[in-house]
Amino acid sequence: ATMAMDALFDSAKQFAELLKQSRLPAVQDWKEEDLMRAFRWVDYFGKVHNQLSQKKKAIQQLNVKFREIGHSLGSMFGGEELSYDFIPHSSEYLIKVLLENPSFSEHLRELIVKQGRVDPLFVQNHFHKVSELSLLVCSLFEVSSMFQKKSSKAYF
Q1: What residues have CB less than 8 Å from 13, skipping those under 6 apart?
Q2: What CA–CA distance (Å, rounded) separates 28 from 90?
Q3: Distance (Å, rounded) from C-alpha 93 to C-alpha 133?
Q4: What is the phi/psi pair of residue 31, to 5°?
Q5: Quick count: other Cβ atoms within 10 Å of Cβ 21?
Q6: Residue 141 and residue 103: Cα distance in Å, rounded?
Q7: Helical H segments across 52-131, by residue range
């Protein structure tokens, strides 16, 4: 069971890194495969969430690990904190930050809509206005990430 938890913790770190990267200007380099990989991570953690639903000790251990990851990666979720309870909302979070990210390509925005992951009117009404604050926040995250140790780009 310990090896399984260790593997889960490693996956949690990669998942957190993915969520952090989704807020950065570097998403301009994402291809369809990168977006699909991101959603596979979300789906994987959805399954993890369901599997752990009755395992309180495992949930506590995962929350401790998520807190440690959060401290090591810095603030990356705005008002959200990565936790077991956050997992069911991670798809909406990922979509929201990608669509708010001015560096995210129009082609991939359309792909999210085509896949039925989000309502096209929602996108049109809420995400075509990018505030200067959003741009500043993305820039700050990019600068802070440059000072951190680079991790592997392979998420899955």
Answers
A1: 65, 69
A2: 21
A3: 18
A4: -110, 175
A5: 22
A6: 13
A7: 56-73, 90-100, 106-114, 120-126
Using alpha carbons, select from 75, 112, 78, 76 the residue that is nearest to residue 95. Answer: 112
Q: What is the pLDDT along the chain (156 residues), one digit of tens a residue?
A: 577 888 888 888 888 888 888 888 999 999 999 999 999 988 998 898 999 999 999 999 989 988 888 777 665 555 567 888 888 888 888 888 888 889 999 888 888 877 766 665 655 555 544 444 444 444 444 444 444 444 444 444
Residue 49 tokens, joined? 């969430």
CA distances (Å), origin 1, targets 5, 7, 47, 69: 6, 10, 17, 21
> Side chain identity at 90, as an amino acid letter?
S
The residue type of 139 is S
CA dist 138 and 60 (Å) reads 31
Name the residue among 4, 29, 16 with its Cα closest to residue 155. 16
Amino acid type, 137: V
Residues whose CB is less than 8 angstroms from the CB of residue 121 and which lie 6 or more positions away in sequence, other chains included: none
Question: The pTM is what?
Answer: 0.68
Nearest of 101, 100, 109 to residue 127 by alpha carbon: 100
Which amino acid is located at 102 in the chain?
Answer: P
